[in-house]
């Protein structure tokens, strides 16, 4: 699950979705989280917050949270981030086996 950073946290829509998932439970579900952010000295960590929420809902976390960097608030991803995301996805697929 992923989210752009909205201030210091995931967006309100992601927070609501996490609450819905937690209510249903995620036992037996393998999960990982990421966020997109600007390259700033100070920023939030939505990926970590999402990971904790997924874990609290019973999901089995198969990879640590990942941050991907964007240019501006609307993106696109910075150069090299797409290949980092593909590598992370490959690592998650291996971990899920």
From TrEMBL:
Query: Which superkingdom, per the lineage?
Result: Bacteria
Q: Record's InterPro entries?
A: Flavoprotein-like_sf
Q: Which SUPFAM superfamilies match?
A: Flavoproteins
Q: What is this protein called?
A: Flavodoxin
What species does this protein belong to? Arthrobacter nitrophenolicus
